[in-house]
């Protein structure tokens, strides 16, 4: 049976992205993202519930942030695509910790035009290095005269309906 692990989030960065470099040259980016749900409670008062998500990315996206080709900062509204990954580790006090992260495949700023002014190629797939494709222009369709609906004849009894 097929399965799918896909996450799409729109939220605000809780801090500036942090990039660490490993000895082999690999880069890892981490950042937190807040998503807020707004709803009315039983009394009709507005309530907000904020969820915090740990984002992690490797490779091209981390490299771009490290080299300042993408300048994401705390508070930026972001569109994120990725997958959920849970893992566990033992901390310095020998306590086993469990963490759930979003492994980011695609990340782009929705914070107005600021990002595009700084880098017009900033919105591309984290692994593909290709700018996002603009949708192909559809050819102009020729105008066609609308067809007049026809009324059934007087002796139609509706017997040809499929139900």
Secondary structure elements and pairings:
Blueprint: E1 7-13, E2 18-21, E3 27-40, E4 46-58, H1 60-66, E5 77-90, E6 96-109, H2 114-118
Parallel strand pairs: 4-6
Antiparallel strand pairs: 1-3, 1-5, 2-3, 3-4, 5-6
Could you characterize the architecture of this molecule?
- With 163 residues, the protein is mainly β.
- The chain has a domain at 7-118: Nucleic acid-binding proteins (OB fold (Dihydrolipoamide Acetyltransferase, E2P), Beta Barrel).
- The protein is 7% helix and 40% strand.
- The chain has 2 helices and 6 strands, in the order ββββαββα.
- It has helices spanning 60-66, 114-118, and strands at residues 7-13, 18-21, 27-40, 46-58, 77-90, 96-109.
- It has a 5-stranded mixed barrel with strand order 1-3-4-6-5.
- The longest helix is centred in the middle third of the chain and has 7 residues, at 60-66.
- The chain is elongated.
- The two termini are 34 Å apart.
- Residues 120-132 have low confidence and may be disordered.
CATH homologous superfamily descriptor of the domain at 7-118: Nucleic acid-binding proteins
Largest sheet: 5 strands, mixed, barrel
Q: From the helix content, strand content and strand pairing, which structural class follows?
A: mainly beta
What distance separates the N and C termini? Answer: 34 Å
Overall CATH class of the domain at 7-118? Mainly Beta
The averaged pLDDT comes out at 81
Q: For the CA atoms, what is the radius of gyration?
A: 25 Å
As a percent range, the share of helical residues equals: under 10%
Strand elements, count:
6
- The CATH topology of the domain at 7-118 is OB fold (Dihydrolipoamide Acetyltransferase, E2P)
> Outline, from the CA principal axes?
elongated
Low-confidence stretches: 120-132
């Amino acid at each position: 049976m097929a399965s799918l692990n896909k996450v799409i989030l729109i939220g605000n960065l809780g801090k500036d992205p942090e990039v660490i470099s490993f000895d082999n040259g690999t880069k890892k980016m981490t950042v937190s993202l807040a998503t807020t749900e707004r709803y009315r409670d039983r009394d009709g008062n507005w309530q907000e519930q904020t969820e915090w998500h740990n984002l992690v990315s490797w490779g091209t996206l981390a490299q771009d942030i490290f080299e300042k080709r993408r300048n994401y900062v705390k508070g930026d509204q972001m569109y994120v695509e990725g997958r959920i990954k849970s893992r566990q580790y033992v901390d310095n006090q020998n306590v086993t910790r469990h963490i759930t992260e979003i492994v980011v495949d695609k990340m782009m700023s929705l914070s107005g035009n600021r990002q595009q002014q700084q880098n017009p190629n900033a919105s591309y797939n984290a692994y593909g290095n290709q700018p996002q494709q603009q949708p192909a222009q559809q050819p102009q369709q020729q105008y066609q005269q609308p067809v007049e609906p026809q009324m059934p004849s007087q002796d139609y009894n509706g017997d040809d309906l499929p139900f």
